[in-house]
Recover the amino acids of this structure.
């Protein structure tokens, strides 16, 4: 940013403009603030977003969550959202148990098959 300038004739190091010139530009921009400047940018609406939720964490909790988000290479809000959605999913424990049992049996058969092939 430019240096602090007190006199209207001083020149800002960054912009190369005087205070008076910057004031004139600011006034012009303010007067024409309702007028479009540049190409129109299409707006994307996301009607599926219904609300923003505020959640409180202790500093320690937030530090731990932020570290986990960094480790997952995700923004903090994305990490929290994904964790909440994952926790909200109902898990059919019986189906999971059956799948685990079937996988264990298949691994046992594979192990026996490999053992007899040796």
């Amino acid at each position: 940013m430019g240096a602090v300038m007190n006199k209207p004739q001083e020149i800002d190091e960054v912009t190369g403009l005087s205070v008076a010139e910057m004031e004139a530009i600011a006034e012009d921009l303010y007067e024409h603030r309702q007028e479009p400047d540049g190409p129109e940018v299409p707006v994307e609406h996301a009607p599926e977003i219904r609300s923003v939720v505020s959640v409180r964490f202790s500093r320690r909790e937030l530090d731990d969550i932020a570290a986990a988000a960094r480790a997952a290479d995700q923004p903090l809000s994305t990490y929290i959202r994904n964790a909440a959605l994952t926790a909200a999913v109902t898990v059919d424990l019986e189906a999971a148990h059956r799948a685990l049992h079937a996988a264990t049996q298949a691994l046992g058969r594979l192990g026996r098959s490999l053992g007899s092939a040796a």
User: Anything to note?
Assistant: DSSP finds four helices and no strands in the chain.
